[in-house]
Amino acid sequence: MQCNFKETMDKKTIENQINELRDFLNRCNYDYYVKNSPKISDYEFDIKLKELEKLEKENPEFFDPNSPSQRVGSDENQEFKQVKHKYSMLSLANTYSEGEIRDFDARIRKLLPEGEEFEYACELKFDGTSISLTYENGLLIRALTRGDGQKGDDVTNNVRTIKSVPLKLYGEGFPKEFEIRGEILMPHSSFEKLNQERTEIGEPLLANCRNAAAGALKTQNSAVAAKRGLDCYLYYLLMDNLPSDSHFENMKIARSWGFKVSENTVKAKNIDEIIAFINYWDKERYNLPYDIDGIVIKVDKISLRDTLGYTAKTPRWAIAYKFKAEEAAVKLLSIDYQVGRTGIITPVANLEPAHLAGTIVKRATLHNEDIIRSLDLHENDTVYIEKGGEIIPKITRVDLSKREEGSKPIEYITKCPVCGAQLVRNEGEAGHYCPNYNGCPPQITGKIIHFVTRKAMNINCGEATIEMLYNQGFIKNCADLYELKTSDIESLERFGKKSAENLIKSINDSKSVPFERVLYALGIRYVGEGSAKLLAGDFGNIDAMIAATEEQLSETHDIGEIIAKSVYSWLRKPENLEILNRLRAYGLQFQSVKTEKDENSSEKLSGKSLIVTGSFATPSRREELEKMVSQNGGKLQSSVNSKTDFIVAGEKPGASKIKKAEQLGTKIISEEEFLKMLE
Ligand code: IVH
User: Fold this and answer.
1) C-beta of 125 in contact with ligand 1 (< 6 A)
2) For a substitution probing ligand 1, which of 87, 126, 133, 277 has the most ligand atoms within 8 Å of its CB?
3) pLDDT digits (tens, 9 = 90+) for 535-565
């Protein structure tokens, strides 16, 4: 009896400890992502988060989907359920003209009783994707996209990973249930990082922040969404009895509950103040860290909204003024064709320098041959350039009235501008490639530069040094780095004995970089950090990967056919194998180090292929079961096929997986049965 009492007490203490940590970490996220004023270091945050994760793992009964530990998302593939909106999700009437804003103001004044006093709230029009959040008892319970305005997709799991969205509200003033709407954005910094990563793995670049945000919000894997660096501004509170009759005040109150509400909203008394706000932000928008595409003007007094009413799709009490994209007409001077590390060719237009959106523009991206064709670009054309959120502007159209007589259409190159190899364009792809992967200079240096980067081998060496070493004939591939002598490096410009010795030391230190990062460093097309980790984890060493068939590679958990094909063909090329063998001889890691020398590992599942699907007692349980498959010598698959031996099914297993298993007669087992197999 006493023992039970003590256990209950201990559990209570643990629960309190967990709750305290959750509140503390929620507050830190709020300070960092909403207030922009962090109070603790990232390091301290990580320590506290690890503490919470440990307690939650040891005490699964206290699981909470709104715990800050859940912000990392899950690897489980999700399907988005369609859910009906409680209040339909309307859009806004749009205009590009100041005159129509004046008409809007006149219309409002006409619709309202004479002498009715009111103000407008002028807000930024965030250029992202709209979202509706529902809170119950201060907790986020649902996040829906707009969909068709009546029904939206349930993207709650992905939205939970956005650090500026409060999972638990502050204060006590909020009602039991309410909705709040806003915009999910991808800030410029996240967008650039994402495109940089895509360049590194040879993927086509995303066109703009809006598309990138919408794509991230709909990724099936919330752990991927969590890494996209999304942000969320809220601008519309919906509930039966709003706290104030002023929209501006309501949003201030929402801010006090923990929501990120723009500090740039102002109240305007008349049309002149509205126009001044528009003109200010038309220029100032370029200094924001995210995209806005206009200004939203709303009648501030909530009680007037019913009087003014709605059209079928839009409220009469608000309007959006959209900025005209700033454009300039400039002369096309020439086109450069850049060659990336994976051989992809990117055409870039050189332009007569022009002022655009606060900067001087000299270049514009053209992306690929199809874009050049659809613009019908000719030599010496005068073109219009436009700047959206992207750093490099794009060409939107040609001024045909200025086309020179007899000017020739731009002919896309057929040979690599650097090495002269015949370019190839794969079916279904927009880009051209130089296939001379091991002989084309920018591809060679590009690959070595990738090899040394921090996330790869972490060799302390800049791009310029790699280029010098290559140009002076010291290195032709990444394996040559390990043959370098201090005297070679000392002979380079700006190098002395000390800096040369440091570089040699850094090269030697890289020999202990773990296998998964070595795999990433090899620069195999489509193999990013994540897929390298999965491959290294599943195969354990490079020999097993070399021995694997293309099908076996694609059966690796979460590795699709495209990556498998790319890895398979890379490992078939004699020149690549030669580099691998040299790197191995220099002492680089080509074998995963079993971090847990655990008594839990065995060969009990050797030769067996398994899939884990559905949800289990805790969100991390699926991952744990998957780990057990690998630890016990089994092979994890991501889709069911004739080789699948067992499906370990939790609650709500993937419907298509079960259907396929039934067709193939694959054995479906429970978690208990699976654990029995390992006993
Ligand atoms: S209010 C019923 N305020 O613009 C009115 N919308 O083109 C609800 N948007 O669907 C919307 N910033 O996705 C409002 N400050 C803002 C906004 C905003 C961006 C988006 C929103 C809306 C679209 C209309």
Assistant:
1) yes
2) 126
3) 998 899 999 999 999 988 987 766 778 889 9
